User: Fold these one by one.
Assistant:
Number 1:
Amino acid sequence: MFNTIYINVGNLFIIRRCRDRQIQSLVAEIQGLQLKLTDGRDAVLWTRGIGDYGTTFVSTETWNQISQQTEKVLWSKTVWFPQGVPRFGFIIWLAIRDRLSTGHRSSVWGQPQHCLYCGEPDETRDHLFFACPYTFTLWLKMVGNLLGTDPDPDWNTTLSTMMTRPYDRLTFILLRLVLQATIYYLWREPNERKHHTSSKTVDQLAKMINKTVRNRITSTNYSTNPRLDGLMQ
Ligand SMILES: [Zn+2]
């Protein structure tokens, strides 16, 4: 093994205590290269893109070089937005990817579970949001006329409506907050039912969601932010 390789600008290689054959052949190969050296001094450069180098480090450019570029998904704005609640965002993200541990999914590992709201044997994501009569009744109550069209119990229709209709800024914030909170509480309620004997009515759940959305709007300091003025109305 070699200890040190010194390389100077004059293209000389001085290798001390090197007996490794692979290193010897590597050196021979390097020496055989036709290097074109300029008179300028060596400098460290950061890659900014293909064939583009700069002397300063810019984290976003470096990140773009090393990260895998994937196409931005249409639904990302429905999940992540400044006024959203992260724990709600996480649940809706799982719902969009159909990764919530619904009865339909748990039946794969031998633990089927029916819908605790209506008794439907196959509790799928699409059933919960909002093909189930209970959850759809709640959704109708919560969304009101925010969608600008009649709410549909179909999951894909609901999402594509939200992603494609041209909502004004405040309506879109409110709509997403209401959807996130509704999904979060609908997802949490069956677990509460498992651990407590009482179960909430649609009206009780609606009240909780309403209060949560109001609290969230209050915490955004909407009254001092002109861009959010009118959100509470
Ligand atoms: Zn149901």
Number 2:
Amino acid sequence: MRFIYCPICGTKLIEKDSWDEGAVPYCPVDDNMYFDTPKPCVVVAVMKGKEILLLKQNYTFKNSKVLVSGYVTNGESVEETVYREVKEETGITVGKIKYLGSDYLASKEIIMLTFMAKFVEGNIKKSPEVDWADWVNIDDAICEMSEDEIGKRVVRKLLKEINYTGEKAYRCDIK
Ligand SMILES: [Zn+2]
């Protein structure tokens, strides 16, 4: 987001030269530069044997299931966000997390950091912001996630990572 006014004190921002970023909006009152950075968010594909953890959140997609996701908050590492979000949304403890690359979502200025993780322990106990959560056979994941393009990309990467050879998993991909 490119700020015009200081989000803390409301002063109109001026431009200040940052030596490698060029002119950056700057509040002379708070002595703060407002870089035009995206919001970091994690997306996690949790595996348990041949199953993957999917959620339904009606405020995101009406007819589609999604992976666990959430914003990175101040004071934590991205890895900590992964453990925390899976725990908060589903009650599950995960381990062996692996980074699968990033995806930029221009409409929301979000940088999505994608991961796979392994189930360690816990029974599904969804948070109130989640409408449904359960383990889904890996073969059905892409079909169940029709509207979630980024989530489906994560699942495809995960299938490659685990050298999954079942053709059935890709049957809902548009050829
Ligand atoms: Zn200010």
